[in-house]
Amino acid sequence: MFVRYFISKKSWILLFIGLLGLTDLLILFDQGVRVEPTSFIYLNSLYIILFVVFFIWRYKKETRYLKAVAKLQKDMQTNWFESLPHPDNELDKITDNLLKEASIHFKQMISQVKEAQLIENDFTASWIHEIKTPLTAMKLIMDAEHNPDISKIESEWLRIHLLVERQLYMTRLPALESDYVLERLSLQRLAIEEIQELAPWCMEKNLAVSIEGQDATVVTDRKWCRFIIRQILTNAIKYSPSDTSLTFRTAVTEPENVFLDIIDEGPGIQPHDLPRIFDKGFTGGNGRIHNAATGLGLYLAQTVAAKIGITLQVNSSQPQGTTMRMTFTDSNAFETVRREQVNNIPL
């Protein structure tokens, strides 16, 4: 900052050097002015010291606001404008007003974009709710029929139903914090509910499903936790060969952490794909084989899990299948933060 300021004020420095040099020439060559050598040195030293003091004073005064602006490049916070100091001169005031107008302008633009997104989400949610009506009617008709071939139609219906449900959850995801209800729930019961939901797909591929381990209660939101299990289970069914098995295993560790492992006997995940399986849109080697892969399931599961205090881990070795682990802590992280906010509200 000092070097830049020094270069920007070179006109000051050149003016000072010129005036000091002109003064010294007049003293040396003007016969009417007589100055002792010691006084000559003293006068030059005094001028230089005064100029240096003046230069440092102006540097500190004029760069205080600029330093605060430069700091924003490294640490841009939400309330960045309020952290700026009061401008000391007209140039800083012009910069301050420009930043203020830019802040207001971009906030208005962001507000308009958010409003457009909300409208789009409302339209999407409305469409999803409307399409669920004929899907429900189709399900009732299929349940009433006893034709063996109806199972194929039911399997395809389930795929459509899952896609519609996932889209509905995607529209709700930005407002998850306002759609969150904590309960103490049986972890194995949550798994059973999702297994029953996807039973037609499992039967189509003749997959055996088993639940092992000690059941445990967890503090979580039923709907969003089931959504995470559904994304993992959907992936497991999709990539599992026919006539294999899926295993749900629960366990409780010493620090009161609860695990749910979802284990399949699929082709596994290639080692170089493991670090990226939760990235949005990443399908990996297996996903390229299955053209229906979108790369959204595990990304959405990880996004929701991070918001509600669940940790997702993957363990896979080709060709021995994949284990997806959900870890629940005893004290839910999301609820802890929310409780602290509630306690800090003044009465």
Q: Could you characterize what this model shows?
A:
By secondary structure, the chain is an alpha+beta fold. It has helices spanning 2-8, 10-29, 37-72, 90-144, 150-172, 187-197, 199-204, 222-239, 284-289, 297-308, 333-343; strands spanning 183-186, 208-213, 217-220, 245-252, 258-263, 310-316, 322-328. The strands form two sheets. Strands 2-4-5-7-6 form a five-stranded mixed beta sheet, with helices on one face. A two-stranded antiparallel sheet has the order 1-3. It is elongated and about 125 Å long. The model has no long low-confidence stretch (mean pLDDT 79).
Tertiary shape: elongated
> Which strand order do you get reading across the main beta sheet?
2-4-5-7-6
| Average pLDDT over all residues | 79
Q: In oligomeric terms, what are we looking at?
A: single chain
Helix-and-strand structural type: alpha+beta
Largest sheet: 5 strands, mixed
Radius of gyration: 35 Å
Percent of residues in helices? 55-70%
Helix-strand pattern, N to C? HHHHHEHHEEHEEHHEEH
The low-confidence runs, each spanning 5 or more residues with pLDDT under 50, are none
Helical stretch count? Answer: 11
Portion in strands: 5-15%
Cα distance spanning the termini? 48 Å
Task: Tell me the total number of β-strands.
Answer: 7
What is the strand and helix layout of this fold?
Elements: H1 2-8, H2 10-29, H3 37-72, H4 90-144, H5 150-172, E1 183-186, H6 187-197, H7 199-204, E2 208-213, E3 217-220, H8 222-239, E4 245-252, E5 258-263, H9 284-289, H10 297-308, E6 310-316, E7 322-328, H11 333-343
Parallel strand pairs: 2-4
Antiparallel strand pairs: 1-3, 4-5, 5-7, 6-7
